[in-house]
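Technical note accompanying the year-one report. For the benefit of new consortium partners, we illustrate the data format agreed upon in the data management plan: each record pairs a sequence with a structure-token string. No post-processing was applied to the example shown here.
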Amino acid sequence: MCGIVGLHLRNPQLYPRLGELLGAMLCEMQDRGADSAGVAVYGDPTWSPTGRATVSVIAPGAADDDLKTAVGPDASVVRAGDVALIGSNSPAEEVSAAIRTALPDALIIGYGHDLAVLKGVGAPRDLAVSWNLHKAQGWQGVGHTRMATESAVDAAGCHPYAVGPDQCMVHNGSFSNHATVRRLLRARGVVFESENDTEVGARYIAQALADGLSLETAVKGLIAEFDGFYTLLISNHDSFAVVRDAIACKPAIIAETADWVAMASEFRALAGLPGIDEARLYEPEPEVIYAWSR
């Protein structure tokens, strides 16, 4: 059992409140997953400044100067709890490669030009405070609270899995054939950083997008290739998509207003959103892809 939440803001006047709203949604899901948590935030001017690449890193023992030296003279470092958000004028992929070379024990948890990823082990409410999540701004956010049923309870096992540029995925459920798909992806040169089944799904989507497929086509491929029970929330730079398996046994609810679109594992995570009384509420149908863009 895990909890997932997502918020896509249609009204720019709400951008300054993204962290406040997303944080409240995340904390409502703590009962569904109290061992670890994570968020992906799109568009915060401090965490991911416009025009610069941002790489989100967990590097225990590495000082800011170590991270700056690894990246180059234009590097900047912003801390959010145990996560270092490294900014650079270089492409995000180059920054990630430089960090891996200089600090091989560092865990890169996200990269892109608008994306900041924060995750770690601990109670979601405590983590949200350590990140100062309520101060975050932006147009879109995704969150996950984990109750581990397989793979280690560590930073590498936390969601979101942000394994492609400005992409991430959170997951409630399990993929029963993830070992088979992992082997197929490894044969294509894909490298994994955990034994978590969700990472396999995220890397499948990232590889499909890298191959030039659309997000909708990539998700349809996942539905065809993966067995199991799941609700997935997949996001990129300016959109997110929700999909459930053929049985749809994992809970999910979507709410829409003129100002925002939100989804969560349970309604209580949506109850505090502004205008919820006027929202259109519905449960996503099995194997139907619901997607929204800026």
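Partners are asked to follow this layout when depositing records. The domain at 3-43+138-293 is CATH 3.60.20.10 (Glutamine Phosphoribosylpyrophosphate, subunit 1, domain 1).
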